[in-house]
Amino acid sequence: MEATARLQRSREHRRHLIDDYERLYEKVAASPIPATNYEMQQLEYLAGKIKCASKVLEAEIAMMNRCLLDLNRLKAKSIEHNGRAMAEKSPALEVPRTGFR
Fold this sequence. Notes:
81% of the residues lie in helices and 0% in strands. By secondary structure, it is an all-alpha fold. It has one domain (2-87). The two termini are 49 Å apart.
């Protein structure tokens, strides 16, 4: 649950940065006068923050994928172990072999 919440917060943070960037870009693009140095610095700063937030988000997604793969491996191992244990306890569950091949 915590990982999912952290992933959601990262997505929201990145989305807010993108919204801020787009708002400032639209303001600068709509203005008849060229952008000031300050506005350009703000755009560059936001672009850098978006890039960083994207990398963090990618890392969190990769971590969650690794966790899910590990969980699936453990489940498969558990199912295999439990299946063998059941077969050993009750050999009557085995499928009788027929002459058909």
